[in-house]
Amino acid sequence: METLTELSQKQTAFFRTGWTKDVRHRVDTLKRLRKSILANEQEIYEALRKNLGKSDFESYAGEIGIVLNEISEAVKNIPSWAKPKKVKSRLINFPGRNIIHPQPYGVALIIGPWNYPLQLTLVPTIAAISAGNCAVIKPSELSPATSRVIAEIIDDTFPREYLAVVEGGVETSQELLKQKFDFIFFTGGSQVGRIVMKAAADNLTPVALELGGKSPAIVDSDANIKIAAKRIAWGKFLNAGQTCVAPDYLLAHSQIAQSLLEALVKTIRQFYGEDPYQSPDYSRIVNEAHFDRLVGFLSKGTILTGGQTDRSNKYVAPTILTDIDWNDAVMQNEIFGPILPVLEYDDLDAVLDKIAGSPRPLALYYFSSDKEKQRRVIESVEFGGGCINDSIMHLLNPHLPFGGIGESGIGCYHGRAGFDTFSHRKAILNKGTWLDISLRYPPHAGKLKWLKRILK
């Protein structure tokens, strides 16, 4: 059996053949990947149900459908994305043509997470393929059934010197990070993200880190309460809250807080029935460790609705917490589960200052019909991306780059942004020889004024 070092060396050798740089091969690879995903669609549903209790609808909407959409976007656009782009020149470089050549990095390491184990592993893989790279793909061991399906899809369809899945636990990830890769793409928590970045620094390997953080939802006094409640509840309790861009906590203007809470309770009942435990549309927590962590958050505050738990079934009900303080544990850590703490506010600027003074979130959601307030929120707080009057839906558009800032991540992907992330923009000046302006050559006496005019 090959070692990880041997696998890395095989992929490096294969990359150097130039095969992956051929646009036709990239497009063909993605078409074959799509065919394999569709052939394994039922196995994917079963794996996601086993790992996270996802319904088929949620599995397609949040995983399979997004992957297929990314493939379609790439297949259609790779020829134009990969084409060298001519840019403006300067007089000092006359005569000459200035061209940017998008070039693949080489061999990429892609480490996927457990919460959307198919989508968040295969979408960056699609970007790596689109840009012309080889890739070693490490799915999360916390979603083992989905990891196995991903391995079958990739290993049964492509040679390992091109695309290879490596399964295993923490030790396997540690060994992979010891190898020399040309690019590393990691999705997960900030603590492991720091470990990945330190390992990459040893080889000066560029990285993209898709992390998380406490993404706020702010509902102002002029918001459409019914719509806000539906869209926040959907975004928060999708995948039982195990979504990196889920609304982590809710800030409700005091004038509408009570009516918003009532609307949220009603919406949860409409979505999942009187007993969400019985709902076929409500997911489960990934494992007991995360279940125990979430239950610990329920010890502070008042449970407005929900709060029921079942460790044997890894079930935590859709829960709303009130009477919460900024210093409570639920407000100090990313929740990553179906618990929504609610705080009231009166001064929007004070709330924005509070958020701006905290680690930068991956997402922010603001509900208001006031255009000026919308502008203030977007401009005054640094965050990865987000929505006005909605939640999560921004990441479904492949034309919008998706990524964090600061502690919520480095780099972005989806569509063209993913191609760019996995590409080096090689700058080339192609200089003509029929004219050679002597300005730059010594002696320089009397030439400074001309240089200043040219570089003005």
CATH architecture of the largest domain: 3-Layer(aba) Sandwich
- The gross shape turns out to be globular
**Radius of gyration computed on alpha carbons:** 25 Å
Spans of 5+ residues with little confidence (pLDDT < 50)?
none
* DSSP summary, beta strand count: 20
Report on the structure:
The chain has 456 residues and is an alpha/beta fold. It folds into 2 domains: 4-211 and 406-428, Aldehyde Dehydrogenase, Chain A, domain 1, CATH 3.40.605.10; 216-403, 3-Layer(aba) Sandwich (Aldehyde Dehydrogenase, Chain A, domain 2), CATH 3.40.309.10. 42% of the residues lie in helices and 19% in strands. It contains 16 helices and 20 strands. It has helices at residues 4-15, 23-39, 41-52, 56-82, 119-131, 144-155, 170-178, 190-202, 225-237, 257-272, 288-296, 329-332, 348-356, 371-380, 415-421, 448-454, and strands at residues 85-87, 96-104, 107-111, 134-138, 163-165, 183-187, 207-210, 216-219, 249-253, 302-305, 309-310, 315-316, 319-322, 339-345, 363-367, 385-388, 402-403, 409-410, 412-413, 423-431. It has a 7-stranded mixed β-sheet. A 6-stranded mixed β-sheet has the order 5-4-3-6-7-18, sandwiched between helices. A 3-stranded antiparallel β-sheet has the order 1-2-20. It is globular and about 80 Å long. The N and C termini lie far apart (62 Å). The mean pLDDT is 96.
Secondary structure blueprint with pairings:
Elements: H1 4-15, H2 23-39, H3 41-52, H4 56-82, E1 85-87, E2 96-104, E3 107-111, H5 119-131, E4 134-138, H6 144-155, E5 163-165, H7 170-178, E6 183-187, H8 190-202, E7 207-210, E8 216-219, H9 225-237, E9 249-253, H10 257-272, H11 288-296, E10 302-305, E11 309-310, E12 315-316, E13 319-322, H12 329-332, E14 339-345, H13 348-356, E15 363-367, H14 371-380, E16 385-388, E17 402-403, E18 409-410, E19 412-413, H15 415-421, E20 423-431, H16 448-454
Parallel strand pairs: 3-4, 3-6, 4-5, 6-7, 8-9, 8-15, 9-14, 13-14, 15-16
Antiparallel strand pairs: 1-2, 2-20, 7-18, 10-13, 11-12, 17-19
Helix pairs in contact: 2-4, 2-5, 3-4, 3-6, 4-5, 5-15, 9-10
